[in-house]
# Entry
Amino acid sequence: MRRSRDGAELAWTNLELDGPAPADFQRVTFAGAGNLVLSNHSHGGRLGRADLTHSDSYDLAITTLGVRILGRVHLPGRPDLQFTQRDGDWVVAWAPVPFAAAYMVRADTDIPFLATGNPSDTVYQIRWDDRDTLTIPARPRVRVTVLDSNLVAYLRDPFRARAGIDAGYGVFGAVTRAEVEIPRTRP
# Structure
């Protein structure tokens, strides 16, 4: 995998998946090939997670069993979340970000709300639902996850075999996250 603008490679390392499986508590050993994780920091001239740039593009090229699979993803921009009051309501608002296909919003103070399907919808009204205050963290937050178009296309169509890649099965997608702290109760 490479960054599109300069061809810089990413620093993938094997992810060791040896140990008890959480579902059946039996010892399961996974093959090392194909179980990879991106290093946190660059090493050996390759980029790590800390080097990824919002609103940048990344290219994938994999050859498996003689088949070459190509893909491209655009890492969505990171929203700048603002806790503010609008028309008497308390909201978290943000400007639209590049390469956003959908936003998922989760507020610690509200009963879970799934996603806004419209990427232009960049305001979330805090509801402070009638929840037991014991379940609300001492420092509640609103979290916004920005989904790219590849991931959204794949999630919206249960019969879709692929998104973001030209062959095979699966998705080559990206998300970006941001969060802001809010009061435990309505101000």
Confidence is low (pLDDT under 50) at residues 21-32. The chain has two domains: 2-74, 82-181. The longest helix spans residues 149-156.
